[in-house]
């Protein structure tokens, strides 16, 4: 089992595949609901959703019960960096994703920034974070299988060698441009991500952020928000 989150204290957990699919679908719906005021970025939103947490795979413990004896919860430092790097290379090197280079850039940027409220990405800590997580990735013997299992479950083509898709220089080149749509896509991903967490964990959040997100989704009459 792969986890998107696991709280050892409360037992609250969310499967990674379920989370990726949920965020992809919800991000796509939100983008479609906003087509009257934005250009159609629903394809970009979908791919941002299904790739945004992919490299949480490198932090999966062999035995979650043993892990919880010494930890409060699973943590995934810098997963967004390697997820963005992998996506940009995967989209450019394969024919499995039909997006232009500018669309790929938007998606990669949204993935990279979807935790910006928690940890700001600067050029300095981008390289620090990349070096940190790439060492973790290289230490995992079955990384190819882990990543390919997720890709296959998402209906995407598998790759022969995951490490070929982890060169940060591709992402670096994509981020030199910027547009207003970048911010819209990042916002859509953040909203879909937080909404999915609350919904899949089946609990009423006490955070103001989730209350604002629910009010926003109701206002645009996009995704059904269930009162609990």
TrEMBL record:
InterPro entries membership: CRISPR-assoc_Cas3_HD (IPR006483), HD_domain (IPR006674)
Give the SUPFAM superfamilies listed for this entry.
HD-domain/PDEase-like (SSF109604)
- The organism's superkingdom is given as Archaea
> Gene3D superfamilies from the xrefs?
Hypothetical protein af1432
Task: Tell me the Pfam families matching this sequence.
Answer: HD (PF01966)
**Residue ranges of the HD Cas3-type domain?**
9-196
Protein name in the entry = HD Cas3-type domain-containing protein
Annotated source species: Saccharolobus caldissimus
Please name the taxonomic classification of the source.
Archaea, Thermoproteota, Thermoprotei, Sulfolobales, Sulfolobaceae
């Amino acid at each position: 089992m792969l986890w998107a989150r696991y709280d050892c204290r409360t037992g609250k957990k969310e499967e990674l595949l379920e989370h990726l699919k949920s965020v992809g679908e919800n991000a796509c719906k939100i983008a479609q609901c906003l087509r009257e005021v934005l250009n159609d970025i629903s394809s970009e939103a979908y791919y941002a959703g299904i790739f945004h947490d992919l490299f949480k795979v490198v932090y999966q413990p062999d035995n979650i019960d043993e892990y919880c004896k010494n930890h409060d919860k699973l943590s995934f430092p810098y997963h967004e960096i390697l997820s963005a790097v992998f996506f940009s290379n995967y989209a450019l090197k394969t024919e499995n994703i039909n997006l232009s280079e500018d669309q790929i850039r938007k998606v990669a940027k949204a993935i990279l920034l979807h935790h910006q409220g928690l940890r700001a990405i600067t050029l300095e800590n981008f390289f620090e974070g990349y070096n940190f997580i790439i060492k973790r990735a290289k230490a995992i013997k079955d990384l190819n299988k882990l990543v390919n299992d997720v890709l296959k479950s998402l209906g995407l083509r598998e790759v022969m060698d995951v490490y070929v898709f982890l060169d940060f220089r591709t992402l670096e080149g994509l981020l030199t441009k910027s547009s207003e749509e970048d911010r819209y896509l990042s916002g859509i991903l953040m909203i879909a991500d937080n909404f999915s967490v609350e919904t899949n964990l089946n609990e009423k959040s006490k955070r103001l952020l989730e209350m604002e997100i629910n009010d926003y989704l109701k206002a645009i009459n996009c995704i059904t928000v269930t009162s609990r």
